[in-house]
Each structure stands twice: as structure tokens, then as C-alpha cells.
Amino acid sequence: MNCRPGCGACCIAPSISSPIPGMPSGKPAGVRCLHLSDANLCGLFGNPARPAVCAEFQADVMFCGDDRQDAIRLLGWLEQATGSSNEQHVV
Hints:
mainly alpha
């Protein structure tokens, strides 16, 4: 599966614990990454400063579902189910 242009769910739903340019503490789950454009495209794509966790993410129907709303819901559920975040977020 290829990423859906303009989805951006992987830049919103999960937490990122590694530093991101402009976000030295990473980002909590449910918060838009600073580098996610208004068109939901990654502003760091192809940039070596992009966190490894972002570069390694592979779109898969299991995580991304059938559309953007599915992806937000599934990635949010996965975040909570794996205990990746100490905060509870409604996605």
C-alpha cells in the first residue's frame, strides 16, 4: 500500500518520542506535527532531520484502513493499546 496523499494521519495520531526540528521533546499523540502542511503533507519528507520513526513507517491497510478517518482511528487505537502514550486522547 502507498501512503494516501493528503492523509497525514501518521503525523497526528501517534506520539513521537524522538526530537523533531522545532519539537525537541517530540510530540504527544493526537497533536499535529509542526511540519505537517495545511495539505497534510510532510514538510520534512526526504530531509535527513526527519525522525527515523517517521521515515520507517510503512503504510498498510491494517494501520491505515480505507480512508483518512480509518487511519486516524486505527493509529489512535494502536497508540493506546500499546501504551505508547501516558495521555488518553480521543481520536
